[in-house]
Amino acid sequence: MRFLKLHQEKIMKLHYFILFYVAATILSSLSHFAQSENDGFSIELIHPDSPKSPFYNPALNQRQLMKNALQRSINRANYLLSNSQLSTLIIPDIKGLYLTKISIGTKPRNKLAVVDTGSDLIWIQCEPCIHCYKQKTPIFNPKDSSTYKSISCNSTRCKNLPGSSCDPKKKTCLYFAGYNDQSFSSGVLVSETFTFDDATNITRRRRLSVSNITFGCGRRNYLAIGDVEPTGIIGLGASPFSLVSQIKSKFGHRFSHCLVPLNQVNVSSRLNFGKKALLSSGKHVVSTPLFIKPPKAYYFLKLLGITIGNKTLRFNNNSTKNLHEGNIAIDSGTTITFLPTHLYSKMKKTIKSEINLKPLKGSATQFFKLCYRGLRVSDVPLIRFQFQDAEVKLNAINSFISIGDGVVCLAFAPTKNLPIFGNVAQTNFFVAYDLDKMKVSFKPKNCAKL
């Protein structure tokens, strides 16, 4: 009997030990997750030409990829100047924008969505679909989620959304988002829980859920790009309906990104929120005021001039008088940087005088205006963008892009429309947007090693 009693005591001790260990593990995980949540989170940005992207085409060579990137950039530059009063605008070819994985509702399944700093509204394809475009992952079904809520017509959110209307029978808010290439999305304005894969730690991926995100549940959708997969659009613009604005009470009104160079397609870029988006002042950190333009989606900077070597070229464009303070948009969805024609011409001429190589002519410069063969990093002059209160020094990788066969071309182009500071110029920079202080900061960073 005594043996049996001792045996029972050992079992009980082991039982308590297991319970204690499990409880401690759960508490530790919850504490670590809470700490991670308080610190903010990072999500993966997938470049459209990456093997992870549904737009990836292994048959395209570097020259074809760059040709397509330039055309997409031209399209976007043309459409960013639209005078439309619709709630959100985008370029005709969504293939130039970064993608990320999101999950929606209480039965989260990963879906690919487009991330755009030039859009405000979030919308996702939803069942029951009256007219939807093709996507490989299942379309979100509100019936599968217990956190799905329709937004009423009388709500502030509905009244503040440009282009909203009301379903007179259900008393629910309706939205419409139209784009200049005839793409559109329309449906019900709703709120739901969004779940993101935190990419902060690659070896230990965590999922972070954010409740009560307002978005358009699209019942009628069309994207004019043929065979597509993205489930919708995640806007990062400055309006109250963008993702960064909706999560500001929890993570602050800020975000940042670190974009890897185009030739590193197997490495993903990062988009950061919360404390992980912060960039404290210090060595090599520069900051410049951020300006917002109608329809409160696009971000603008004030460019004073460009210094190449020892020569400074002033912006000096009289047409910017009506642009308030900002005269150049900063955009992650435009590959190359567009400059006013007069400024670009001076830039091209100055760079040619600084490089002791003969520029290529003919087919090599069909799409880019200034190309070289055999150009070394040491041949490229230092190019410094003089923004208000900030000087951003561009490396060779920010100024020239490879189009294959040993040919590199100047990653700038002239425009008579809207100047845009594109993503090539932003690669290998930690770019932090602080929408409370209305500033954007730059710090040189090897983004592939984050």
Structural class of the secondary elements? Answer: alpha+beta
Arrangement of strands in the largest sheet: 1-12-11-27-28-13
| Quaternary organisation of the protein chains | single chain
Distinct helical segment count: 8
Number of strands: 28
Low-confidence stretches: 13-35, 82-92
Give the biggest sheet.
6 strands, antiparallel
Query: Mind telling me the C-alpha Rg?
Result: 25 Å
The helix content, as a percent range, equals 10-25%
Instruction: Report the sheet-strand fraction.
Output: 25-35%
Q: End-to-end distance, in Å?
A: 63 Å
pLDDT averaged residue by residue: 82
How would the global form be characterised?
Answer: globular
What does this structure look like?
The protein is an alpha+beta fold and 450 residues long. 20% of the residues lie in helices and 33% in strands. The chain has 8 helices and 28 strands. It has helices spanning 2-38, 62-79, 156-160, 243-246, 248-251, 341-354, 396-399, 423-426, and strands at 41-45, 98-104, 111-116, 123-125, 149-150, 165-167, 172-178, 184-198, 206-222, 232-235, 254-258, 269-273, 286-289, 291-293, 298-301, 303-308, 311-314, 328-330, 337-340, 371-373, 383-387, 390-394, 400-404, 407-410, 412-415, 420-421, 429-434, 439-444. Strands 1-12-11-27-28-13 form a 6-stranded antiparallel beta sheet, with no helix packed on it. A 6-stranded mixed barrel has the order 2-3-10-4-9-8. It is globular, with a radius of gyration of 25 Å. The chain starts with a helix and ends in a 6-residue tail after the last strand. The model is unreliable at 13-35 and 82-92 (pLDDT under 50).
